Prior knowledge:
Blueprint: E1 3-10, E2 16-26, H1 31-38, E3 44-46, E4 53-55, E5 60-64, E6 69-74, H2 82-99, E7 109-114, H3 116-128
Parallel strand pairs: 2-5, 6-7
Antiparallel strand pairs: 1-2, 3-4, 5-6
The structure holds zinc ion (ZN).
Amino acid sequence: MSVSEKHNITCRCGKKFEWDIWSSVNVTKDPDLKDLLFDGLLNVVVCPFCGDLFYYENFILYHDEKKHYLFYVYNHDCAESKTDLVKKAKYDCEFVNQKADKKIFVGYKIEVFFGLDELVEFLRREEEL
Ligand SMILES: [Zn+2]
């Protein structure tokens, strides 16, 4: 399931507004979101006051049930190292697998990216192969 939450966003013009920001994207259930991502429009917000269009960076969990991908996409300015984050992500999945009656994330590729551009680059490269 894909999940979005309302965020309070402050525009460069100084005005504040609310926008639904995706935090979890399941591209198997919601292929439209994959299109948005590839078009560079996922979590792009439009200020209702000045019309400015900008990207609102937010942590996103990317889930592809068909390809068995579970990707953790952190913000560019995330201070933690990739090695630590990958370790944490794998631990999380193990935890979920142990809790659930049926193991969910078996044979999954678990990866960490910094920024949606890094993720899109990876996915594009992969589709070309
Ligand atoms: Zn504005």
